[in-house]
């Protein structure tokens, strides 16, 4: 019995077709991508992905594609957006700001007071050692300020900073996300939510791996 496509699957498939309309040579040059006649390669949150140059499908692997996994919606949509949408001369400002201060954000989606971020902070509470080790596993650079604070790469060319504080008698657990001021030159703000959702998923994955 064929598994029915979800709306997320349908969006991913339609966006793969959109990807094929863009100039792949431009993507290769802009981000210094590895490539061959069949695939473009890109690193996303410390993991290697490849995009099929004829179908637009996105896959990832942790062992040089001996074992292959299909990218999920958050992974694929983030990669498509960065490759297709980013401005021609996108560059970092090297100034980090709270993500809800990004100038183009007009809704509450990225507010650090939203349930999404608080739920994530609550999940990390009591797990500072595991969270720190997970950040290290994702090649993060440890920073000051916070019970756990790291600069991590969404992509090799696009960093993000997370700062986490444990709950105490007066305040709940707190999670702060800082992005480069020019992040929205690389992706739409809705896509940043996809990227952060996947980042937290990867941290969770590494935390589970440490328990095994």
TrEMBL record:
Pfam name, any one: DUF3786
Domain of life where this protein originates: Bacteria
Ranges where the DUF3786 domain occurs: 26-199
Protein name: DUF3786 domain-containing protein
Protein species of origin: Blautia faecis
């Amino acid at each position: 019995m064929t598994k029915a496509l979800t709306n997320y699957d349908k969006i991913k498939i339609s966006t793969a077709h959109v990807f094929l309309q863009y100039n792949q040579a431009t993507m290769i040059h802009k981000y210094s991508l590895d490539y061959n006649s069949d695939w473009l390669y890109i690193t996303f949150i410390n993991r290697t992905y490849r995009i099929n140059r004829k179908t637009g499908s996105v896959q990832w692997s942790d062992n040089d594609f001996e074992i292959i996994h299909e990218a999920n919606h958050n992974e694929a949509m983030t990669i498509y957006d960065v490759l297709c949408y980013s401005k021609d001369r996108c560059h970092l400002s090297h100034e980090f700001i709270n993500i809800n201060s990004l100038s183009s954000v007009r809704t509450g989606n990225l507010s650090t007071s939203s349930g999404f971020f608080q739920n994530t902070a609550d999940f990390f509470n009591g797990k500072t050692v595991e969270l720190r080790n997970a950040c290290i596993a994702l090649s993060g650079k440890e920073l000051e300020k916070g019970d756990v604070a790291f600069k991590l790469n969404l992509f090799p060319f696009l960093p993000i900073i997370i700062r986490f504080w444990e709950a105490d008698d007066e305040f709940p657990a707190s999670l702060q996300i800082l992005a480069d001021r020019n992040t929205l030159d690389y992706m739409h703000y809705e896509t940043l939510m996809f990227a952060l959702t996947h980042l937290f998923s990867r941290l969770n994955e590494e935390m589970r791996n440490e328990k095994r």
